[in-house]
Amino acid sequence: MTARLKKSYEAKRYRLVRRFGEVCVDLFRALGLILLAAVLCCAFIYVYCLLLSATYFSIKETDVRGLKELTQKDILTLAEVKPAQNLLAINKKAIAKRVAENPWVKNIYVGRELPDRLVLELRERQPLTLLQIKNDFYLVDTEGDVFKKVNEGDETDLPVITGLDAVGKTKEPYFSSALKLVATLQNTRKYGYLGSVSEVNINEIFGLSVLTERGFYLRLGTDGLESKLGKVKAVMADLEKKGMLKGLICFDLTDNSKITVQRKGAFVRNQTETKGNGYRI
Known about the structure:
- The radius of gyration is 38 Å and the shape is elongated.
- About 4% of the residues have low confidence.
- The strands form 2 sheets. A 10-stranded mixed β-sheet has the order 6-5-4-7-8-9-10-11-12-13, with helices on one face. The protein has a 3-stranded mixed β-sheet with strand order 1-3-2.
- The chain is α/β, with parallel strands linked by helices.
- The chain has 5 helices and 13 strands.
């Protein structure tokens, strides 16, 4: 019995010694991995610091692309990039945020071209029209966003949308219709006979009216705007043959069944009225 107990005791001691050895090996392996990771981190930080201070990556050129309304000086002033700043040390998000403060900037991309070039690529807003609110004018881009109040000294040669009493009303459907009408008249030669648009007036009850630089005033109403514009050409051709296409002329197309033409200082109706595409003077 004693021999059996002694043998069992020695077996347990052997197992404990073996397990202790295995634990020590695992512990040394873990410590080795931790030490290796620490060394690698220190090496990485050291190399990173060297790169951030290396003159090889100092910014020698800042390339600003996509400028139309703005100047390179405007953008560089906003970007606040210091001379000879390390290209790898710049904060791209901070630069983009500062440049985007200019209302003309719609989007901006900040990139690096190693070893020494900083790239600022802009997408500027494209102004489509002016919006008059009381005595103030605002620039509106092609997407309908009011992005800048016009200040003294700003050069603008754009059509004006009138009839609104608050900037908040630009979210209403009739403002979108006015923008679409301006874009249609300005960007196509189809309606070149009308001349450039000077003003589009919005009336919440009677719809849209257009004044062109040739002295034509078109009351279009609320629907079928392009279809109504197409009818004006034939009427104008007839008026020109009669020598009556002079001065300020008003075309009232609010009624889909007829066109009423009024010359400045006179309003005379025909004795007979025609149907369909006919018109009255």
